[in-house]
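Worked problem 6 (solution included).
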Amino acid sequence: MNHPAPATRRGLPNIPGVRRGLAILLCAAGLTPGAMCGASPEPIASVSVDRAARITTLELANGVVVHYRRVPGASMLSLCLTLDVTRAGDTEADRAMALAAISAIRSPLPLGVPMFTAAPEGLKMEYHGPRGPLERQLGRMVDLLVKPEIDPEAVGAWRERTLRTLSQDLADPAAVAARALNRLLGEGSARGPLSPAAVSRVTVEDLAAWQRRAWSAATIEVGVSADLAPDDVLPVIVESLARIAPRPPVRAAAPHTIPEPVPSRTSQLTADMPPGDAVVLAAYGAPGLDRLGDYRALVVAKSVLRDRLAQRVRAAGLLLQDDGLSVALAPGRGSGRGLLIFSVRVHGDADAAAIAAGVLDRLIRESREPGLLTPDEVRAAGETIAAEAETTQADTRYWARVLSVLRREGWDPAELASAPSAYRSMSADAVRAALQAWVVPEQRCAVLISSEQAPPEFRPVGGP
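Solution. The predicted structure is:
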């Protein structure tokens, strides 16, 4: 999806006696004389307006990009800043450094506390609250970017805490299964959980070197959303962000490398888990999912298939554990592959896990054929998801987060805003077509895990 072409794109006027925010608004709307829009004084290089999506975009002279979207009726202001440290590297070692930075990099101000969170696209900082404290909160964020300090004791504490968590994960059947599934999918350590070795290698000196390199190479994209006129919010944001040193301009992320199709693989493991418990973790997917329409069709599919799978597991004589069934859809940009991931936990032994896996496999095959997914259940699932999307999009946090990676991801905000209507109009034929294209039984990777060795005669298409 391409970034929408701006409706207007000009330099900003330097108008004495007029608030900069008003100048931004007037120039973007084309309401000032052309001669007044010819210059691009600091700190803003240009402005654009996407009227259809109600988004104003400012490009600062230092390379920072700010997107603002007004959400009528919103009571809070939300701001999300994405520091794309993946530009400096996206290896397991880089990811370990980024996670250490969340705990160890602080502002020297008395109120300085860790404010970063991790995301696949880099490090994020967020504010959600009334308009009043915005200037102070944004100032704290900028301090972490212009004069960060590394707390050596925090680095050691992070290392010990993370190693302890990883050790506990090795005894957690769900974590063991997830690691095994990553290996089957060929994701390796670059996308799976950190290894203890990568965590142990993080030192204060290496983190400081990484921070200097990552901070200078990272692009910064900021999303802001509120029910305020641009003149009421953009001036203070520009003033704070102008303190940031120049950096590379924000560009769309490089297209992901589409991996080779993964042949069907199964791993059977034993784990220290309660007797009578068995887990199946299975991923179905084909390389290259990048169409939003197909992604939405799979969102509907996973809702319908979850209910169908629960019915079939019980019909096979198996008893699901409490909350023992879930379906997730992993989008394709991170790994180049769209995946429907099913987790089934049943009372039983390894043989019960094999039966549950067979039930799942048969359901997937049949879901690709006409007739299994009825128009009524697709319509009901679509209506439920549409209502959830409306609630989500009424929250300014949703738009702030989307806008903070808008250019990086190449998203079309108008297309994103169409989610409720798209889900309500979803047809059974569209869902089946997406399943046929992307959920391929011959590219299924599954992990069966129980307290005893799984039987060697596992049948991937067994079940009732």
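Discussion: The first strand starts at residue 9 and ends at 10.
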